[in-house]
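During the first year of the project, the team set up a workflow for recording each protein of interest as an amino acid sequence followed immediately by a discrete structure-token representation. This format lets reviewers and collaborators read both layers of information side by side without switching files. As required by the reporting guidelines, we include two representative entries from the current panel. The first entry is reproduced here exactly as it appears in our internal archive.
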Amino acid sequence: KFLVGAVEYDVDALCDGKEVYIAGIMEHIEAAGVHSGDSTALMPPVQLSAENKVEVENIVTRIALKLGVVGLVNVQLAIQDGVVYIIEVNPRASRTVPYVSKATGVPVAQIATRLMLGESLKDISPKNNMIAGMSFVKSPVFPWKRFPGADIVLGPEMRSTGEVMGIGRNFGEAYAKGLIGSGMTLPMSGGVFLSIRDEDKHRAAPIAKRLSGMGFHLVATGGTHRVLTEAGVESEFVYKVKEGRPDIVDSIKNGKIQLMLNTPMGKKSALDERAMRLAGLRYDVPCITTIEAADALIDALVSLRAGDLSVVNIQELQL
């Protein structure tokens, strides 16, 4: 069954058939259900409890040894209400290996090759050199503009064609760098459109309050506008497509919207939402389609406004 509200994790590990070395545990910003290749991943994890961390490492170790892996193994897990679930196991290198290697200073692929050629982890003794206090974010790169008419909603089918890495002294800085590197234009001011599905509406007001406090003008469709009003957050009502004019697509065309936060509401609203997202794509308005990413985006905007985006030399980090 689908794990509602679960946090997904990617683990890359090395195994020589007798011992296991956990190379990296990555925490997905998007909830479980979005393809791991399309998810934004964070190292080190921020929501993973010490107890669950030990359990995850134990699970990965047992699986790798039981499978007789010699080299690399990637395990995807989800944690819901403190319970760890295994999604899938891949006894091979993962696309996250370069990211883990750069974040930890451990040449993961090189060590995996040496293990496959007969060396042992005991002989190699890899050491994690990740700097305490630093954050590392892997952001996917999407080809939306190359495919006119393609919808940008994320799901179990992988859509990304690449990825970039952001490094920062805090999560906000790292995430902002990752988003900018992936081609997203982050607004410093202007209008933010919110259309949040019912399952996420309980998280809409806190996000809207932070945006309003930063001086953004909020625009929302009926249900979201009502939730924000009840929470004491001021927003401008706007029509959905075919509800009346001017509608949200008109607002995007007229330059009133600089950022969209739209979590898909299902088949009933599919046409309306698709038209809105395609308009955003056409007029270069960034659109966030998961509530978790919307929450994280605000941290990025805070760092961007504070001028925290200084250059980090990755070679110096690993000395």
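The second entry, processed by the same pipeline in the following quarter, appears below.
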Amino acid sequence: MRILALQDYLRVGGTETQFLDLTRRWSRMGNEVCRIVFRRGGPLGGGLKEDEVPVQHLQSIRSPLNWWAPGLERAISQFRPDHMIAFGRNGNSALAALLRKRGGGGVVATVRTGRKLPGRYLRTVRASERVVCNSRFAAGLLEPLGIDGSRISVVENGCRFAERSLPDREGSRYALGVEEDELVILSLGSFVPGKRQHRLLSIWKQLSEQVRSHARLWFVGNGATRREVQRDAGRLLDSARVSFWGNRADVDRFLAAADVLVSVSQEESSPNAIVEALCAGVPVGALRCAGVEELIGDETGGAVFSDSEEGELQLRDWLCGFERSPAIVERARSFRKLAAERFDPDKRAEDYLSLMRGMSSWESGGLSR
């Protein structure tokens, strides 16, 4: 198959990571894949020169405009795809006008968010032949909007850590400066308003002094709200126990060193960070959000609390009583085998290909000119 995949910008995020990983796997599985990215640059764009699937940028200059897709129709026409798949809000929205002219045969829209869909995004979802969501929660948002349920499929995120071993825990903690008896609380994700890292910092402040005295709070990620959160953390008496690591290529080292991952995001369908923690055998404490409850249960060693002040207090108490509880840790480690199967990246990539094989071809309909 000839597959054309759209993404607006290679920022650090779960959607962008999935875009790169899925297209790479589709290529390795014998398909001809074309990646089209609107905007140049991005933290994930720096290491693509050696990638087997090249990226074609539509913007000839560096711009701050994620939505601008000049020459998109021409690029599609030149590649002559069998199928197209769009990732992210701008990637999906960019197809709306074209699908209105030409129809959505051969097109896969994706919904990987718990937020309301903008108008053009929704038009693409309605016009596309198939829609793939990464959680049942996201799929459930579409049918009330008039999307035929027979067109909707749920394919969970694949995870690279499901197919390889993590670094050694003891060596990772030593390299990152952690004492063996310290509790490491980890947050993974870009610093954007919806991720709400400031709320996690607030929960940290509410932990007992005894717990905080031998615990560390690590933020891995970067973005617009980092400066504000880091400034507030710097005012704490124990500010040295709160670390901001920025974007890291060695996320697996941080997962190997961590005792627990905490998610307080309010905007995700199925957070990649949680999937990665499950595949690493790390317990997860989270506030309820979209499809989070589809990932975390007692069998994973994790817990989900309501997105409220009461829920924050319950998450705080769970962390205070956590103390690397043998029972919780054992459940999380035991779940790794199930997680490796559930989030096997090759199997999830094949799910998309199987779906496309049953679809009509984009090229057979031709492009409007």
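For the second entry, the following points were noted during internal review. Residues 106 and 358 are 10 Å apart (CA to CA). The first strand starts at residue 2 and ends at 7. Both points are flagged for discussion at the upcoming steering committee meeting.
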